[in-house]
Amino acid sequence: MIKNVHRERALEAVSQLEYNALRPRLIIPEYGRYLQKLIDQAIEIEDRTQRNKAAQYIIRVMGEMNPHLRDVPDFQHKLWDQIFIMSDFRIDVDSPYPIPTPELVYLKPTTLDYPQKSPKYRYYGNTIPSMIDIALSWEEGELKSALIWVIANHMKKTYLSWNKETVEDQVIFEHLYDLSDGKIDLKTDGEELTSSQELIKTNQKQTNKFQNPSAITKPFKAGFKKNEVPKKNNFKKR
Question: Which sign does the torsion angle of CA 58, 59, 63, 65 carry?
């Protein structure tokens, strides 16, 4: 008889257990299910005064759960926003702050438009075509000519960063002619760009500088010896 009673009570207790798979989804899991139940109960309170008191109590509990955030600006404002969010915006209480709306909270950011056009020569990126457009917008003269040769040398340097062997100047001139839609033609000028060997050395120096940061600070440390003890002041007090 007694065993049957214990068995019935055990079965009843098991039947009353709540499984996470069957429970409603927590809107802000960090606060746990107990606090979510408090908010759900506060929604059902008919008397507005008592409902406001319940909301104030819940705000205090939320604050106690986040003591490390008390010094954060607008901490109380964040808590009030969270209580409305956790109530699915159904709790009707007097907030000291503007009441948030689902449209404002769940506002989706504007999708950024990324350039779909990929550069024709990937190793030049988008910078070189922009520089070419600037050069084409300048008036004819020495400054424009100088800028074009700077661009050509930079193209060669960039090309050698991608292909670390060598490249003929005519290849760079052809690329420049193509990227400028035939408006810049250096193929018949007879002048040469900086040699591939020199540009490769420049690229290697820059790579080593980034890979070895201590090389940058080495000149500053050169004047200090390890474990150097400062000399005493030789001036005697008068």
Answer: positive
